[in-house]
Amino acid sequence: MSKLDLVPLSDKLFLVNAPNEGRFPLSHSFLIRGEKTVLIDTGCGLDVCRALMEEFPIEAVYNSHAHPDHIAGNFLFRGIDIFTPDVRSMETGTLDILATRLVGPDPKVMDFWKTFVRQFTGIEDYEATGTFSDGDILDFGGITLQAIHTPGHLEDHFCFWEPENKILMSFDIDLTGFGPFCGNPESDIQAFMESLDKVMALKPAVAASSHRPPIFKNAGRALQAFQDKFARNDQSILETLDAPKTLEEILALKPIYKKYFPGGEVLYRFFERNMISKHLARLEVQGRVTLAGGQYRVL
What would the mean pLDDT of 158-163 be, rounded to a whole number? Predict the structure, then answer.
């Protein structure tokens, strides 16, 4: 019996469901079945990756960006071309290098992160064989995709656009209720919002992300609602400032995550601190908060 659950987005493009409905630490993958058979992202679970290899003659793998829940199965495809974004391409492939980039430099956080991702994704080191760039047209025979650089979530985040059917593969523009994740040091709220403007301008008929079912109706509305969650997080942080507070005092109130998964507090606090800091910097630029004496206060 096949372990695969494929959702057709077109006659040649399929979403590969992860067994946990795409929730972190897994993610949906995408299968291209043109004249060339290609897998985009390998975070759908190692068993699913193996089943894909058994059932389809996969000739290449493409990665949307370097988060472990999107690249965990790359090592299974040794001997097959693996293409990664040309942005920060030298800082992926090896877990130690990724840890320094994504959660460094605190050794406690890096060690916890490496243990966590190894345990829950099964990731192993791999070697990419090539890169792709913003604007590249990827022709797989009967289906072409355009690579669109969409930084903000990470600097190397890309979306893929299938113009014939107006399908947007948005990856970690994930359209979930949690909203945009920008918890890594390189994450950037302004760049994320500009990336959302860029893909909304395409007016997609279908938006398929890595962490929820595809959206076949009102894709533009879903993208706008996702972007609006930046303002929601701004407001959640402002509501903590009924009196002047330090960053650590704001963090203790968990205005973004609300609660932490037991045992994962080290990572949740790291990510939420980064997100709060980025929102506070944005609110300072907007003239809505000020920092004095180590405390933030509402203007």
Answer: 99
